[in-house]
Amino acid sequence: MTVSRALRGERRVAAALADKVREVALRLGYVPDPAARALASQKSNQVLVIVPLLSNTLFVDLIEAAHKVLFAAGYHLLIGVSHYSAAEEEQLLRAYLPMRPAGLMLTGYERSAGSAQLLAASGTACVHLMELHPDSAAARLHSVGFSQLDAGAAMTEPLLARGYRRIAFCGAQLDARVMQRLQGYRQALQQAGLADPGLEILSPERSSLALGAQLLDQVLQLGGGVDAVFFCNDDLAQGALLAANRLGLAVPTQIAIAGFNDLPGSAQMVPPLTTIHTPRSAIGAEAATMLLQLLQDQPVAQNRLDLGYHLVRRAST
Amino acid sequence: MTVSRALRGERRVAAALADKVREVALRLGYVPDPAARALASQKSNQVLVIVPLLSNTLFVDLIEAAHKVLFAAGYHLLIGVSHYSAAEEEQLLRAYLPMRPAGLMLTGYERSAGSAQLLAASGTACVHLMELHPDSAAARLHSVGFSQLDAGAAMTEPLLARGYRRIAFCGAQLDARVMQRLQGYRQALQQAGLADPGLEILSPERSSLALGAQLLDQVLQLGGGVDAVFFCNDDLAQGALLAANRLGLAVPTQIAIAGFNDLPGSAQMVPPLTTIHTPRSAIGAEAATMLLQLLQDQPVAQNRLDLGYHLVRRAST
DNA sequence: GCATGTTGGGATAGCGCTATCATACCGGAT
DNA sequence: ATCCGGTATGATAGCGCTATCCCAACATGC
User: Fold this and answer.
1) pLDDT at residue B113 above 80?
2) Which residue, B10, B31, B199, B291, could crosslink B103 as a Cys pair with Cβ 3.0–4.6 Å?
3) Distance between alpha carbon A297 and the CA centroid of its chain, in Å?
């Protein structure tokens, strides 16, 4: 018992004894068995993270930052990929929750009834990423992110201010966050009296460069003097920029193109892409810190942490 | 004991009884505790995968494919990211090996002495990804991939055949696989009597679009009529293509650009990028299958599985 | 008829930790 | 000298499974 306590730093063990224990453990190469720990204490040192995709830098940034904070605190990440499917997410929860993860990090709030039930039944501490919970008074929920709706407006308004009048919106994937950005775009256009549902092009397909090119094509077929396009994601916008290049369309003079997320390649594009920079690493790190506080029964300063975003003006608009 | 056996399908349990057990387990929502299983059986159902990076589609493809095969067999992935650092890899092994993963999937063969020792001491089944082991007779080692050296030559030779004479090589990261591709490039040039160490530009930095642009700059400063550049990675090549576009350099007429790996964006570039397509998903899936055979003590058909690669000729050369 | 499998089911004893309660010890108040 | 509360250490009993041995029941071959 004393060794167990000394190594975990739990309760008080005389400093001299604790040092000796650690020294001997090191010398013998003794490492506590995580399985036995988990069995005896009824909780593991794993934190389950479920992201929609791994092939988007966005989520990788989140994971890397969270890993750094949690690994330093002795926790390990168990990474699940839901492919934007509530059913797959539920399947992952069903598979991983029995491992009694110490905590959870989930993306957004949209999930199946089964998932919600599993989560409630497990009672595991959970932090939600990317989206803030709409109800700021929901004290039981923890979230770190920014307002996707505001960010959508924050891209649209400057475009309006610059004089663009027929601004199309291209969305793919159509997950909750994309729809919120769309909502922000709509509100901004409405406020300017320029709303037109015909300017919205939505596709349920996975976001990609190739799809960006296709969506630009659709925009061009709209006619009616579309002078700017707000893509819900930099992937799409990059694809559109390349397509414009292929078609000999001048950006931004013939058509302006804007994206969202500020992915690595966006600054390199020709012309460089105007986009909204989102603080993925900070979200991952802060969410991990919040989870750690939850796990250690420390008071959490804010259960709804808004990390904002900012507009990055480049030459594509 | 009978329930345990019925649920695992281990040994023979009367079919009727086994069905009944499963039915009751389902009804009660009973799921065996993985920690208790791990403690009693001295092995977990987790497979540790260590990749250099998550921000490269290459490794994500590997992981997704391996996950699919292993998840279906009841195993879970424990993903570690080494950032191309042998020290970080060792740290990950030190953290994760005590969890007694059922198996391991590692990238390449370069690792620290400490890592090698940990691996040997653990005796865990291990499959190596991407690179084939140079010694095909090393029966104890299991690998799935392709010859990086041959692939390097397979890009260089067609360039020579097309009449390019001053072919530069740009490499970043400089991990083992990049160096093998470089070797293939060298051999091809030597065979053609066109070798020139001055045409090699190597940078230890992380591969990125921005670095690709910088490396292209360096190539242009070489002078001497460089007519083609083989980038060790599509990231770099894409960056170079964009940079050429910015500089008003015509590709491929003024300079031809080739990459490696056939990443998603490469076909979308202007002009589309000539590259080597590598079978990442197949490697992940086959490696997982091989590991599964190892875990179930089934005979493994080949302990060194060559999945090849192929040249994708596009307009950038 | 008996030794010799073979097969399905069960009893027992851990796996290596931690929760919990007990105890020893110490200084200070009575 | 006794009592008492607080603190450091220790004894005990599991956590929920599986490895292993055991046994009953029945089949097989000579």
Assistant:
1) yes
2) B291
3) 25
Gap between the Cα atoms of B53 and B84, Å rounded: 7
Can you read off the two tokens belonging to residue B100? 């007694």
Q: Mind giving me the DSSP string for B224-253?
A: TT--EEEESSHHHHHHHHHHHHHHT--TTT
- The answer to whether the CB of B285 falls within 8 A of the CB of B68 is yes
H or E element at residue A204: none
A268/B213 CB distance under 8 A: yes
Torsions phi, psi of B70, nearest 5? Answer: -75, -40
Is the C-beta atom of B250 closer than 7 angstroms to strand C?
no
Residue A137 has pLDDT above 90, yes or no: no
Angle at B254 between CA B253 and CA B260, to 5 degrees: 80
As a whole number of angstroms, the distance between CA B196 and CA A277 comes to: 43
Are A100 and B35 an interchain contact pair (Cβ–Cβ within 8 Å)?
Answer: yes
Q: Choose the closest CB to B44 out of A35, A96, A264.
A: A35
Coil vs helix vs strand at B317: coil
The residue among A308, A245, A317 whose CA lies nearest residue A275 is: A317
Query: pLDDT at position A120, please?
Result: 92
Q: What would the pLDDT profile of B190-199 be if each residue is shown by its tens digit?
A: 999 999 999 9
Contact B270 A78 (CB under 8 A): no
What is the rounded CA–CA span in Å between residue B195 and residue B188?
8
Residues A47-63 have pLDDT tens digits of 999 999 999 999 999 99
Q: Which residue of A39, A100, A242 is in closest CB contact with B269? A: A242
β-bridge partners, B276: B311
DSSP string, B106-163: EESS---HHHHHHHHHHT-EEEEEEEPPS-TT-TT--EEEE-HHHHHHHHHHHHHHTT
Residue A33 confidence class, pLDDT cut points 50, 70, 90: very high
Residues B98, A33 contacting (CB under 8 angstroms)? yes
Hey, which residues does B275 pair with through a beta bridge? B312
Q: Would an 8 Å CB–CB cutoff place A78 in contact with chain B?
A: yes
Separation CA A176–CA A111 (nearest Å):
11
Residue A2 CB coordination number (10 Å): 12
Q: What DSSP line would sit under B156-185, residue for residue?
A: HHHHHHTT--SEEEEE-S--HHHHHHHHHH
Sign of the C-alpha dihedral, residues B269, B270, B272, B274?
negative
Which of these, B79, B21, B77, B27, lies nearest to B50 by C-alpha position? B79
Residue bearing tokens 């979308």: B268
| CA dist., res. A296 & res. B143, Å (int) | 42
Interatomic CA–C1' length for residue B187 and nucleotide C27, angstroms:
82
Rounded CA separation A291/A203 (Å)? 35
The closest of B151, B38, B284 to A98, measured between CA atoms, is: B38
Angle at CA of residue A177, ends A175 and A180, nearest 5°: 110
DSSP string, A238-296: HHHHHHHHHHT--TTTT-EEE-SB--GGGGGSSSPPBEEE--HHHHHHHHHHHHHHHHT
Tell me the pLDDT tens digit for each residue of B217-272: 999 999 888 999 999 999 999 999 999 999 999 999 999 999 999 999 999 999 99
Q: What is the pTM of this model?
A: 0.93
Q: Does A112 touch chain B if contact means CB atoms closer than 8 Å?
A: no
A93/A107 Cα distance (integer angstroms): 13
Cα dihedral sign, B125-B126-B127-B132: negative
